[in-house]
Specification:
It is built from 10 helices and 10 strands. With 373 residues, it is α+β, with helices and mostly antiparallel strands.
Length: 373
């Protein structure tokens, strides 16, 4: 059933096509009167058509002008283009530009940090295969350069990052990548990538580079683990050797210093003795020159005293007919032996007395043991 048919096949009263045309003409006449387009027309139909076209033109102009309004958020910047060429950069706020196709705008978020991940297999400095999973964080700090300097900024960033990773890892040993200097490696990758992007004037800032994981191809995993373990054992052995060296060297240096000090003391003592002997000889020479005979006799007597003091003495009695020999050295030895024997006996007796005293003390302190006995 069409729109102009009723249930019995007849049109509703007052809803025909002529009525719709009349309503449209009334609206056109009212708009023309409001805009001054309904005066002086000899033909009502022609005046209404001209007024309707003007209204449509005004509405179209308003809509076209309205499309030039746009808003820039706090974290964004707007790049205004005129026929595709750069005109200006707008800060956050409400702005207007000549609508399309004369001018257009591009909104760039300059504060949002975006992340992309990169996984690459490469060779290290010691020719080891390694698979690095790297996450790169970046943001667009210069929207003009970001839009106009590079054809595909994100793709360029990924290629630059991979190149920087390969260059840094290619100069680094596998031990440093696995155990020690991952933060330094990430910093070097970030610095190299940023320098390349700055040279391209990309308008992109690399915020950070993170080494998420370091893996090895499956067919060489066992061999790499064995090599890593061998390097760890080597490092442990070197540390033990260094510890032993650090313990031995100070002792050896102390002994050497002590030997040097003892040698210096011996040298000083010998020099002092020699100087004393020389001084004593000079003093004796002066006395000898004054009285040679007396000095000579005194030197002889002192020498004999020194000899007899260090030797055994035997007295000979030559006054009688029979020569009597008194071996003083043997007598002294016998006296010393008797004194030693007496001392040993005294010590043994004292030990026996001490033992008896201890036994008596034990019996006194333990009555039960005494009753048992």
């Amino acid at each position: 059933m069409s729109w102009n048919e009723s249930g019995n096949g007849r049109r509703p009263t007052g809803q025909g096509p002529n009525d719709l045309d009349k309503i449209a003409r009334d609206w056109q006449r009212k708009l023309s009167s409001a805009l001054g387009g309904g005066r002086g027309g000899s033909r009502p139909g022609g005046g209404a058509s001209a007024g309707g076209g003007l209204v449509l033109l005004v509405v179209a102009l308003l809509v076209w002008a309205w499309t030039g309004l746009y808003r820039v958020d706090e974290a964004e910047r707007a790049i205004v283009l005129r026929f595709g060429g750069y005109v200006k950069t707008e800060d956050p706020g409400l702005h207007w530009h000549l609508p399309f196709p004369i001018e257009s705008h591009e909104i760039i978020d300059v504060s949002q940090v975006e992340v992309f991940s990169k996984s690459s297999m490469m060779l290290t400095a010691d020719e080891a295969f390694v698979v690095l999973n790297v996450a790169v964080q970046y943001r667009r700090v210069d929207p003009v350069r970001y839009l106009f300097r590079l054809r595909s900024p994100e793709e360029t960033l990924q290629e630059v990052s991979e190149s920087a990773i390969r260059e840094v890892v290619g100069k680094t040993r596998i031990d440093d990548i696995l155990r020690e200097n991952q933060a330094v490696i990430a910093q070097n990758i970030e610095t190299l990538a940023q320098e390349t992007l700055d040279a391209y004037e990309s308008g992109i800032e690399v915020v950070s580079v993170n080494l998420q994981s370091v893996e090895f191809p499956g067919d060489i995993q066992d061999a790499v683990q064995d090599a890593v373990k061998a390097r760890e054992d080597q490092r442990t052995t070197i540390l033990e050797a260094q510890t032993y060296t650090n313990g031995i060297i100070p002792v050896a240096r102390g002994q050497a210093q002590r030997t040097i000090q003892e040698a210096e003391a011996y040298r000083d003592r010998v020099i002092a003795d020699a100087e004393g002997d020389a001084s004593r000889f000079n003093a004796l020479l002066v006395e000898y020159q004054k009285a040679p005979g007396v000095t000579r006799d005194r030197l002889y007597i002192e020498a004999v005293e020194e000899v007899y003091a260090n030797s055994s003495k035997v007295l000979l009695d030559a006054g009688g007919s029979n020569m009597s020999i008194l071996p003083l050295d043997k007598l002294l030895e016998q006296r010393n032996a008797a004194a030693a024997a007496a001392l040993r006996q005294a010590v043994a007796a004292e030990a026996a007395n001490l033992s008896q005293y201890n036994a008596a003390s034990e019996q006194t302190q333990n009555p039960r043991a005494r009753r048992t006995r």
